[in-house]
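Practice problem: predict the structure.
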Amino acid sequence: MVYAEAKRIMIAYENKQGSIQSLIAQSKSQHKNSLTCLIMKTMSYKKLLNKIIKKSKMLENEKFLGDKLAQLLVYDVLFGMGVRGKFKSAVKRNYQSLTDACEYYMKKYQVDNRDNLLKIFDEKQSFANNSSNKPKYVYINQLKLKKKEILNKLIDGSYQKVDYDKKDENYMKSSQKYKDLINSLKENEFIKDNHVKNLIIFKHDAKINKNYNLFIEGHLLQIDKSSCLVPLALNPEIDSHVIDGASAPGNKTILLSNILKNTGLIHAFDIDDVRVKTMQNNLKQHNVTNVRLKCMDFLQTEIHKYDRVSHIMLDVPCSGSGMTNRFKFGDIDLENIKDDKRLWKLEALQRRMLLHAMSFLNVTRIVYSTCSIHQEENENVVRYALKNCDDRFKLVNIFADKWNYGRGICLDEKDKNDFHLDYCIRTCFESNFTNGFFIACFELSQDIDQNSFSTMDKEQTIEDEINET
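Answer:
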């Protein structure tokens, strides 16, 4: 039965047993297309469905259904293909009250049909709705062709560049005027980003996608703007030796290679062999030739083997709570529920990785980043590292003149005046039209004894903490 299986998958998703896509793929149902459509639609309009269910008093009459099953049935009977099977009689008993409740909300939102009710109500789902309108950010990879040649190919392919005054303060910041400019783009138009060089922006529903020949040929790379800021903050000089501590699938590594112009050497590590193989293909597609990729835990690296490394990019494993595609079903409350035990373990791992990065004797600059909104994985980790690095590193005020919104959170005067946590940056959809990201940049302090810092005991302490959980 489709409804029972859909209910099971929705509950499993809430219990974080997998993504909707993976749970459907594992299902033994012979009607996966119908199952997918029903679940996606029901979860997308859950808030409206709950209002109709409450107004109709359906669950008071049919307590055996439960909220998930009721949502599925109400969607199908009012907005879908109609209810079939053994639950048809329960729906039939409540059909009049359900249609009355639906008409009530149609009048309330001043729409003349049910489809428009879905559209209007979807707009009420604020972040969930808006995040699906996140622009398409596309990076111009110059490891094969020059930027001008790629843009000419793009324009020859019927795309048009829209010019605007980048010096205008309203466009320099991610203001409403800038968002309006992006939303005004036609499906074949793009603009240059106001912060990241070589990044162009298409409207969320632009027809361009990864099947376009310039993507297939490796000239373009679809990547969120927030991810671009990480290698940009590191900004290594030509010929530098760099470590990418958690590199797969390699998009940030490709940008890093662009900054280095394929010179120097990037030591890229990832612990998952499947992701490493994917990354190998990704690097080859984009003509990256200065990367030495290893399937290896960054924490197992021996620092004396990397004495030429001066920069480390550390985009650590995290909860992923800032990723806007996680909100596509409108489950904002669900996705922001903190799993404290998991966050604590992640924070412990992140601390270890950052302290390990600080132990490389010739490293002068480290960028730490997460795609998380939680302070446990962000400011807490940075604060801990600064307390335990023997003053060897200090925070850099990244993008100081260009990023006047979305800064690190300071809980007290010490955070602001001693640790300078407001030197870190945060991104989010509401302010920046991007995923939620946190970025901190550390720089080696002057007049520091290079041999004065050891993380061995500190890393062991954190490892003991992890093993106790």
